[in-house]
Amino acid sequence: MEEKRKALMLEAFTGEARAHFRLLLFAQRADEEGYPQIARLFRAVAEAERVHARNHAMLLESVGSTEDNLKAAFETETFANQVAYPKLLKEAWALEDKAAIWFLSSARNAEERHARLYKHALEDLVAERMPVYQVCSHCGWIEEGEAPQMCPNCNKPRDYFIRIGD
Questions:
Q1: pTM, 2 dp
Q2: 67 with 124: CB under 8 angstroms?
C-alpha cells in the first residue's frame, strides 16, 4: 500500500508542479500581450497549484534535513548532467535540431555548475558562510558573489543576472 500511495502522490506532485510553472509562463505571455487581468488569474491559479504540489510533497516525505537535501540535490544534478542530458542531447543531435541542442547543452552545463554549488554548500554548513548568488535569467547559470561581465555559459551580459541574497 505504501508504494502505491507513493506512486500516486508522486504523479500528483509532478502534475501540480508542471501546472504551476506552465501557468507562470502563461501569465508572462498575457502580460506581454497586454492582458494584465488574465495574467493575474494565471498567477492566482499557479499559486494554488504550488500549494497542491507542496501538500503532495509532504505526503511523499521528500524533504529531509538541510544536509540530506543538499546531498539529494547534488545527486540529482549530477545524474542530470552525466546521464539524463547526454541521452537527450544524443536524440537532439540525431534530429539535427540546433535549438534543442543549444538549450539542452546550456542546461547540462548549468546542471554541472549547480552540482558544484551544492557540494560547496555542504562545506559551507560547517563554515556557516552565506554567499550571494547570481542567476543568469537566460540559461540558468549560477555564479557566487558578483555577476560576471558575460555569462560563461551563454554569453549574455551582466544585466541578465538576477541577484539572490543580500
A1: 0.70
A2: no
